[in-house]
């Protein structure tokens, strides 16, 4: 189990007079390291090394020389989470037994302004500040999933997000074209795109050709392409709607080609999107903890996958407050002297994880009676009711606490026990 990264004392305990800290500024091709001792003093001139095996080996050799020079028995490397450019170095260092810590880029920027009383920025300066921040306990352990089911989920979800963007883009293009050529298409499906309408336009190319095909031609087209849910009655309705349509009757080859291309793009994207959703569900089937979370009414596979990809193994945490902080859902106080401002949410935390818990809150309010009661209490019944958005945040926070207890203690979801906590939670929030 990792140390509790939210506790300063434990962070300080990692650094002593026998510890050498290497602050690394990550770049695409060339990294820079500065070595710092436990008091924050720079040792030596530092090193610029390439982002390849030769460069990594050079880093280790020079680090060993500095370590021998000051008599350090332990080496710790620290870096900013700078995209993907530091992943290879992080895994290389961990495989040879060197701990890798993560320093927040916001802290580096602000500390740089304070230490030099200016806002100048360069690689050497950033590397030195990264190492200095570690000696002050301003770091966290690396929580990136390297392998295993959580890593698999993270990879699949990132790909799913990309596929979803493509799917939305292709769908919007079709909506635009159909709004000109056949604006009545929504009569066959109020949301999304009708499979029957797309099949006809892919086969015939334009509205005029669909009308000329008649009821029999429309029905034959649907049977040919095995379009489920579209029979003779729908064919009759389609013909009548198409005949009376106010759509533009363009019959050029360019229009037909464009429509078929857009439909092909959309259908391919839809198949890939459905396939990746299936892979995510298969991955969740192999995770007993995921099944426990999905046993709560309102929590589906995608939200569950986002949550587990964000937090990883529950044994990494010793308190639900750590998950709140990781997701950026922990309240931030605003008090100074006699001034007592309103608490607000932190702008820090993992964006995807925060979004997942917020969406989970919305789903629970809509589909889970127990959570709906809590939401109703906080937004309507209590002395100082919350606005709706804050009510959703309360539900998301409640889910985190319930989830933590379930997974940590290996227990099932208990609705009555959760509802019994409502007064205690209200007193805590007050």
Give the tally of structural domains: 3
Number of helical segments?
A: 18
User: How many beta-strand runs?
Assistant: 10
Radius of gyration using CA atoms only:
29 Å
Largest sheet: 6 strands, mixed
- Structural class, by secondary structure, is alpha+beta
Instruction: State the helical fraction.
Output: 55-70%
Inertia-based shape = globular
What's this, in brief?
By secondary structure, the protein is an alpha+beta fold.
Topology:
Layout: H1 8-13, E1 19-25, E2 30-36, E3 42-50, H2 53-70, E4 74-79, H3 87-95, E5 99-102, H4 105-116, H5 123-135, E6 140-141, H6 149-181, H7 195-204, H8 207-224, H9 232-243, H10 253-285, H11 288-294, H12 301-311, H13 320-327, E7 331-332, E8 335-336, E9 339-340, E10 344-345, H14 351-367, H15 369-381, H16 388-409, H17 415-420, H18 422-429
Parallel strand pairs: 1-4, 4-5
Antiparallel strand pairs: 1-2, 2-3, 5-6, 7-10, 8-9
Detailed description of the structure:
The chain has helices at 8-13, 53-70, 87-95, 105-116, 123-135, 149-181, 195-204, 207-224, 232-243, 253-285, 288-294, 301-311, 320-327, 351-367, 369-381, 388-409, 415-420, 422-429; strands spanning 19-25, 30-36, 42-50, 74-79, 99-102, 140-141, 331-332, 335-336, 339-340, 344-345. With 430 residues, the chain is α+β, with helices and mostly antiparallel strands. The chain folds into three domains: 8-141, Nucleotidyltransferase, domain 5, CATH 3.30.420.40; 152-282, Helix Hairpins; 288-429, no CATH class. Strands 3-2-1-4-5-6 form a six-stranded mixed sheet. Strands 7-10 form a two-stranded antiparallel sheet. Strands 8-9 form a two-stranded antiparallel sheet. 30% of the residues are buried. The model is unreliable at 1-6 and 424-430 (pLDDT under 50).
């Amino acid at each position: 189990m990792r140390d509790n990264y939210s506790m300063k004392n434990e962070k300080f305990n990692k650094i002593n007079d026998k510890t050498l800290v290497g602050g690394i500024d990550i770049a695409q091709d060339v990294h820079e390291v500065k070595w710092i001792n436990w008091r924050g003093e720079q040792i030596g001139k530092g090193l610029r090394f390439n982002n390849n095996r030769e460069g990594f080996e050079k880093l280790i050799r020079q680090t060993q020389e500095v370590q021998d020079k000051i008599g350090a028995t332990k080496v710790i490397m620290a870096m900013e989470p700078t995209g993907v450019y530091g992943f290879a170095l992080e895994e290389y260092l961990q495989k040879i037994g060197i701990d890798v810590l993560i320093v927040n880029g916001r802290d580096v920027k602000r500390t740089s302004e304070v230490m030099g009383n200016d806002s100048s920025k360069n690689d050497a300066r950033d590397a030195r500040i990264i190492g200095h921040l570690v000696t002050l306990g301003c770091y966290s352990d690396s929580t990136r999933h390297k392998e295993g089911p959580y890593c698999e989920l993270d990879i699949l979800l990132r790909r799913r997000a990309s596929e979803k963007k493509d799917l939305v883009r292709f769908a919007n293009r079709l909506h635009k074209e159909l709004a000109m050529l056949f604006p009545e298409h929504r009569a066959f499906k109020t949301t999304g795109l009708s499979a029957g309408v797309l099949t006809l336009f892919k086969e015939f190319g334009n509205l005029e050709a669909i009308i000329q095909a008649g009821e029999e031609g429309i029905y034959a087209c649907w049977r040919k392409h095995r379009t489920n849910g579209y029979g003779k009655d729908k064919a009759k309705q389609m013909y009548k709607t198409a005949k009376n349509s106010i759509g533009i009757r363009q019959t050029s080859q360019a229009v037909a080609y464009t429509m078929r291309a857009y439909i092909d793009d959309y259908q391919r994207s839809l198949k890939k999107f459905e396939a990746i959703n299936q892979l995510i569900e298969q991955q969740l089937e192999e995770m007993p903890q995921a099944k426990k979370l999905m046993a709560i009414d309102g929590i589906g596979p995608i939200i569950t996958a986002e949550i587990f990809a964000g937090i990883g193994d529950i044994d990494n945490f010793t308190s639900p407050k750590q998950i709140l902080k990781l997701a950026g859902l922990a309240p931030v106080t605003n008090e100074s002297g006699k001034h007592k401002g309103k608490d607000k949410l932190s702008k820090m935390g993992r964006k995807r994880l925060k979004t997942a818990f917020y969406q989970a809150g919305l789903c629970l309010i809509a589909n889970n009676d127990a959570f709906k009661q809590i939401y109703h209490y906080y937004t309507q019944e209590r002395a100082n009711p919350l606005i709706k958005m804050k009510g959703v945040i309360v539900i998301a926070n409640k889910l985190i606490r319930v989830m933590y207890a379930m997974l940590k203690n290996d227990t099932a979801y208990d609705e009555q026990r959760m509802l019994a906590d409502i007064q205690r939670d209200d007193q805590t929030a007050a």
